[in-house]
Amino acid sequence: MIFEGRTISPGKAKGEVIKIDEPLSFLGGVNGSTGDINVKGGNVAGKILVFPKGKGSTVGSFVMYDLKVHGKQPAAVINESAEVIVATGAVISSIPMVDQIPSIRLFEDGDIVTVDADNGTIDIEGISFKEIVSSVVSTGGRCILLKRPESNRSYPGHWSLVAGKIEEGESPEEAARREIMEETSIEVGEPIGNMDPLYVREGKTLFKVYPFHFDSKGKEPILNEENEAFTWASIDDISSMKTVTDTDKVMRYFLR
Amino acid sequence: MDLTRAELAVLNGEEGEGKQKAMELITALGKIYGAENLIDITSAHLSGASYKTIGDGGLKYLEDMVSGNAKVSVNSTLNPVGMDRTRWKEMHITEEFAEKQNRIIELYGKMGVKTTCSCTPYVGPNVPKFKDHVAWAESSALSFVNSFIGARTNREGGPGALAAAILGKTANYGLHLDENRKPTAVIDADIDGSIFSYSLLGQAVGMAIGSGVPYFRNIRPEVEEAKTLSAAMAASGSVALYHAEGVTPEAKNFDVSDLETIHIGKQELQNAYDKLNKTDDIQLIAIGCPHLTEKEMHQIASFLKGKEKRNKDIEIWFCTSAAIRDKCPDDVRIMERFGPVLADTCMVVAPIEGSFERTGTNSAKAGNYLPTLCSQKAMCRDISALMEMVM
Q1: Catalytic site positions of A
Q2: Cis amide linkage into residue A52, ω under 30° from 0
Q3: For chain A, where are the alpha helices, taking DSSP H only?
Q4: pLDDT in tens, B327-339
Q5: In this complex, which of B32, B53, B159 lies closest to A92 when CB atoms are compared?
Q6: Which residue ranges make up each domain of chain A?
Q7: Does A92 touch chain B (CB under 8 A)?
Q8: Is the ipTM of this complex over 0.85?
Q9: What is the pTM of this model?
Q10: Given CB atoms, is B31 within the 8 Å cutoff of chain A?
């Protein structure tokens, strides 16, 4: 899968991903002589280092240079949004760097990735890609959550928004309406909100999720065989429920 | 970004690797901030001078820049370093540190940087003019030249400012553009006008607004007050530009009638004071953040004249530039009876954590950084209150 980003520091590299989920300060976060990562296990040397963005002291740029001096620098850096400290460190240390990729959630530790920072692209090997929709169908601050059976392949026994795969030739919005009809028998009108797509990895599959918000128009769901129960849940209710990734994020976005 | 043919040639390495690297960095930073083009600068001020802050990585970076024949092309000055170049032994500095620090200074010198080693270059060797575009690092100094002089700079980092100095250009974004110099909040200040009240005012405003462009009413800062205010707001928040009604050159350009007004009075100053004061017991008093001006040297000397330091347990450091120390020999003689007048350095960038645990200062900027960069418990009071502790 090839994704477009933006060149921050030129060059090309291929290697294994090591990902840090939080903004990273090189000063304190990575040992400049050894490449060891202090905020989690592992080492940056020769790796494709993925993290959302830099933070912390401007001395971090020189920690990256220190890595280079010791031959422990990452093969490339990938950020969601570059900031000055890491961009400076990458440029002065001649480490290829790309930012403005859709999300660091494209990646998992151990993925083999080719970074072409001259052209601002990245290529993740061996993953399959699926586009899905996920809808908040709500009335008065509560929305429908559906319980997946224990036998389900994806997220067994979890509560989910009204979700499903986009079929060929379908727009995301059409898919959202069709899934709601199939899974709840509710016919919804135009969406009352949408948000930027989210990315979720499950093993070697990468899901691109298009969230939507629809008004239930006061109707009660009638389930098909895909789910075994439903409930009307508010944002406060879900903290104690086992939900599919990002359910809380999407509900919060639309219902708050 | 729109680069000229000449700029593209530099980016493609036609003028050597040193300039190519500098151009790669300036264009990368320009992209991050959405700059459309580059602009010429008239001066630069560089941070990343103390061995304590840049470490071996920074030292090697400078070595490599010099081997690549990097040279600055505009008037460029250097921030304070980790020690006084001649009196470092009085600061409990190790031989190894001194050797590496001297090498850093030498390397900057080889690139054509004036190794003034001061955070107040605007009182001497590097004075931008109104509307000049410049590339300055050192948060207190860049805020001073933006605000009090009306020159234009962003908050540059060390390597970014050096790259700009080499090219004589920086990316055109942020505070280089008129629209980003507009005030974002009015500050109705109720202070007593003493230098220390400007430290607390700056601390309080930084705490209240974080970033943004404050527009002050009811203050009349001169150089020393503006220096203090700039430093405090850049440390407690990330303010890089402010306006003061009837004082700073751009203040008259703005209609602030629709802006939110924030009152800073007794309560806010007390909160600022409490935030900066975490100990009653100190081992070192460090004065001169930012570096003392000639006027401040006279004031301190006249306060200390005829008095005696009785408390031998507390050390005192006064920090200024070598140029100002040389200009005030009579003041220096009086001050030296209390403690060394150090040049080129300060309590924040020197490795004081090796010798002290609790430090008093009159600077809100130092009050913010002593705990984080020097592992100190800090006290922040006005100079006379600090001096009375040792008399």
Answers
A1: 57
A2: no
A3: 26-29, 60-69, 84-92, 172-184, 247-255
A4: 999 999 999 999 9
A5: B159
A6: 2-124, 128-255
A7: yes
A8: no
A9: 0.86
A10: yes
